[in-house]
Write a structure and sequence with these properties.
Length: about 150
């Protein structure tokens, strides 16, 4: 009888863990501004090290949460101010097996540290728009350097 109780308790723990993962994901994705996003967490092996998750736009930050994690805090935060896209490419080699076919990989620099992110091709346009957007009332550095005619 002790074996049956042990199996039952183990099953209940696994069920609770899975339920917690799905509830966590539902809470984050219901409020909008959320995209599917993979981040390359390791560059030791060529084409490997990608971790699936989702990104959430909160003001001037892109917060990335791992897909299979119990953490309520983001694993990585990319700030719009220090983020720049260096290049864009399609998945190559082993990367084609770890992400959907319609995804694009963006190599970015964030405060002088390189970071690679992958997202759906349809999401890239929105990401680039968010990246170039300025908060209301702020003057873009590109516009501030130009001489505008007096009104």
């Amino acid at each position: 009888m002790e074996i049956v109780e042990g199996i039952g308790i183990g099953f209940a723990v696994v069920l609770c863990a899975l339920l917690t993962l799905f509830v966590r994901r539902a809470l984050f994705t219901r409020s909008g501004g959320t995209i599917r996003l993979s981040v390359r967490v390791s560059t030791l092996l060529d084409g490997r090290g990608w971790s699936p998750g989702f990104g959430r736009f909160v003001g001037a930050e892109l917060r990335w949460y791992r897909l299979f994690s119990f953490a309520l805090r983001p694993k990585r935060v990319l700030e719009r101010e220090g983020l720049a896209v260096e290049r864009r490419r399609l998945p190559e080699g082993q990367e084609r097996f770890s992400m959907p076919a319609d995804w694009v990989i963006l190599r970015c620099t964030s405060h002088h540290a390189p970071v690679e992110i992958a997202m759906a091709r349809s999401t890239v346009t929105g990401f680039l728009s968010w990246l170039e957007a300025a908060p209301p009332g702020a003057v873009s550095p590109r516009l501030a350097s130009q001489d505008w005619p007096a009104a």
